[in-house]
Amino acid sequence: MLDTLTCYENIALALTIQRINPHEIEKRVLNIADKLEIRDILKKYPYQVSGGQKQRVASCRAIITNPKMVLADEPTGALDSKSARQLLENFEFLNKNLNATILMVTHDAFTASYANRILFIKDGKIFNELIKGTDTRKQFFEKIIDVQTLLGGDLNACF
What's the angle, vertex CA 74, arms to CA 119 and CA 87, rounded to 5? Predict the structure, then answer.
């Protein structure tokens, strides 16, 4: 985020670069800010808000243009559970409705449970892959936990 811009301006920057109509920019910024519950900080500067609020502003800026791909490194790391769920639901919307690819790195099983496909990496190599398929998010979460248990243990003892 740019410290010399307000949170609103930081979010609007991507649309401004695309030369979107200012009225459309305002409508879209307010809409995404409402979804991630940061409307009350839009006039503040990054140094005036918490780490979690900064992360939500950065997430808003990343998804406001309806991108074809989002690269997210621990996107929920500084967020409370409600804010994390809202962000993940926005990622899910982008993926399902706008056909965007979300490439996310996370250590959190709850966050990973929103994915359709997971690659587990251990010591720089792909250790396992899970595909959600028709599983519910809860069922998928349980499978993720099972693999994480294997990742932390002695693999020789598992086979």
Answer: 105
Q: Which residues pair with 117 in a beta bridge?
A: 131
H or E segment and range at residue 69: strand 69-73
Alpha helices in 39-136 (DSSP H): 51-63, 81-98, 109-112
Higher pLDDT among residues 83 and 118, named by residue = 118
Distance CA 77, CA 87 (A): 11
In this structure, which amino acid lies at residue 95? N
Burial of 134 (0-12, 13-18, 19+ CB in 10 A): exposed
Confidence at residue 153, expressed as pLDDT on a 0 to 100 scale: 55
pTM of the model: 0.75
61-93: pLDDT as tens digits: 988 998 999 999 998 988 888 888 888 988 888
Of 44, 64, 66, which Cα lies nearest the Cα of 54? Answer: 44
Structure tokens at 94: 């982008």
Q: Both tokens of residue 34? A: 């409402």
Burial class (CB in 10 A: 0-12, 13-18, 19+), 55: buried
List Cβ neighbours of 76 (8 Å cut-off, separation of 6 or more): 83, 84, 87, 88, 106, 108, 111
